[in-house]
Amino acid sequence: MSQRLKVKQILSDDKSHYEATVKGWVRSFRNNQFIALNDGSTNNNLQIVIDAENTDAALLKRITTGAAISATGQIIPSMGKGQRVELKAATLEILGDCDPEKFPLQLKNKPSLEYLREIAHLRFRTNTFGAIFRIRHSLAFAVHKFFNEQGFVYLHTPIVTASDAEGAGEMFRVTTLDMQNPPRTEAGDIDYKEDFFGRSTNLTVSGQLEGELGAMALGEIYTFGPTFRAENSNTARHLAEFWMIEPEMAFYALEDNMDLAEAFIKSLISYVLEHNREDLDFLANRLAEEEKQKPQQERSEMGLIEKLEFVLHNEFVRITYTEAISILKDSKPNKNKKFQYLIEGWGADLQSEHERYLVEKHFKKPVILTDYPKEIKSFYMKLNDDNKTVRAMDILFPGIGEIVGGSQREEDYEKLVQRMQEMHVPVEELSWYLDTRRFGTAPHSGFGLGFERMMLFVTGMTNIRDVIPFPRTPKNAEF
Ligand code: ATP
Ligand code: MG
């Protein structure tokens, strides 16, 4: 038997007149003669030509959309348009039948994204999700490539943790206790001393605190793993299980942190533009079609590729929270009471409508907002000399809102403990974290990039459930 080749390779080669074996799934079968075969290596199908007259009728009947097949034959120049080469089948084998009456993905009726979410186990078989998940792979690879080239150490922080260290969100409890009949303390509470870890544990909401420990010895580290938030926010931008990239760097001030984040994001965009052009073009066309359905004034000014190029070649705007508040206060939607949450003045927490106004209407560029009021940010962020603001930075993206949250960390032991007390963070429980401030503390910074938010931006998809293979959201953990 000849060598099995991937469709992508056959279509990208200039060669013809050689024998090859291909394996994949039938996308369509026309005129009892032409099979469009997809093997997942690319959205482009390989045309397989069958000699119907010399093929068993029973076999022909089994060539249905969705069936898995193997075919061997000559790769020859194609007479038809749409492809340069095709495979003239000498032998064809059905590896797995697919009942056309039952298979939910027939080409005739274009399924909606909502419907495809219900059959997420099969949606990989569509062009849209083929493109999305090949890009997701590339983007993950580009993350490691970037940090590897910068000399960062990939640190695996724990998934199961014992502290709500960050206070970042509600957590999922991890337990092996018998929930029908849990052990009780004398006071009648559930006794987690009896639990698997001898204490109450949960799934991590962020690897940052452990990441800081690594950075304070290895210099520059990053984590890239799943994080979990039991927040009941059923939005198109929140998942209960999502992947986050969290670099943490010793001796970095806030400005260095911003520079790194901007360079990092740009490198990811540049990588996919270079390596996933075919899939990006496919998604760009898809998006353009979708845009056409919208009323004129709601259509976006740029196509997907243009938007990626634009972000790649323009500097992010950097402004302080205080400057942002004054822009928002004087903005039309604020004056006309169009914002759901009106900006009354300094101190207000920014909602996604405000973030999007700044990015999409005012600056029309990615924006890095810095120096937020300490009250609306986490305890570990470095206090500025004004005693009111902290060295936080959020990166806001068009169509997405917050894509990165980060800060310079408070390295001063006394100040940090004071902030913890003010914010009711248990100092005792975090003594291991405070040790870095006791033993050779140093300025350091870091940030978290939500991988799926980045995926949304790169693919132009609008619902976060469509850029992760099996989304976990409130009331949904299927597959
Ligand atoms: P948001 O205000 O959008 O809820 P956050 O302030 O809770 O975000 P951080 O705790 O700073 O976010 O987390 C860092 C990054 O992780 C965010 O910038 C975002 O990209 C991503 N992120 C946060 N929560 C989620 C979620 N539930 N689903 C997917 N990505 C998330
Ligand atoms: Mg949140």
UniProtKB/TrEMBL annotation:
<dbReference type="InterPro" id="IPR012340">
    <property type="entry name" value="NA-bd_OB-fold"/>
</dbReference>
<dbReference type="InterPro" id="IPR045864">
    <property type="entry name" value="aa-tRNA-synth_II/BPL/LPL"/>
</dbReference>
<dbReference type="GO" id="GO:0005524">
    <property type="term" value="F:ATP binding"/>
</dbReference>
<comment type="subunit">
    <text>Homodimer.</text>
</comment>
<keyword id="KW-0648">Protein biosynthesis</keyword>
<dbReference type="GO" id="GO:0005737">
    <property type="term" value="C:cytoplasm"/>
</dbReference>
<dbReference type="InterPro" id="IPR004364">
    <property type="entry name" value="Aa-tRNA-synt_II"/>
</dbReference>
<dbReference type="InterPro" id="IPR002312">
    <property type="entry name" value="Asp/Asn-tRNA-synth_IIb"/>
</dbReference>
<dbReference type="InterPro" id="IPR004365">
    <property type="entry name" value="NA-bd_OB_tRNA"/>
</dbReference>
<dbReference type="GO" id="GO:0003676">
    <property type="term" value="F:nucleic acid binding"/>
</dbReference>
<keyword id="KW-0963">Cytoplasm</keyword>
<comment type="similarity">
    <text>Belongs to the class-II aminoacyl-tRNA synthetase family.</text>
</comment>
<feature type="domain" description="Aminoacyl-transfer RNA synthetases class-II family profile">
    <location>
        <begin position="133"/>
        <end position="469"/>
    </location>
</feature>
<keyword id="KW-0436">Ligase</keyword>
<protein>
    <recommendedName>
        <fullName>Asparagine--tRNA ligase</fullName>
        <ecNumber>6.1.1.22</ecNumber>
    </recommendedName>
</protein>
<keyword id="KW-0067">ATP-binding</keyword>
<dbReference type="InterPro" id="IPR006195">
    <property type="entry name" value="aa-tRNA-synth_II"/>
</dbReference>
<keyword id="KW-0175">Coiled coil</keyword>
<dbReference type="Pfam" id="PF01336">
    <property type="entry name" value="tRNA_anti-codon"/>
</dbReference>
<dbReference type="InterPro" id="IPR004522">
    <property type="entry name" value="Asn-tRNA-ligase"/>
</dbReference>
<dbReference type="GO" id="GO:0004816">
    <property type="term" value="F:asparagine-tRNA ligase activity"/>
</dbReference>
<dbReference type="Pfam" id="PF00152">
    <property type="entry name" value="tRNA-synt_2"/>
</dbReference>
<keyword id="KW-0547">Nucleotide-binding</keyword>
<feature type="coiled-coil region">
    <location>
        <begin position="273"/>
        <end position="300"/>
    </location>
</feature>
<keyword id="KW-0030">Aminoacyl-tRNA synthetase</keyword>
<dbReference type="GO" id="GO:0006421">
    <property type="term" value="P:asparaginyl-tRNA aminoacylation"/>
</dbReference>
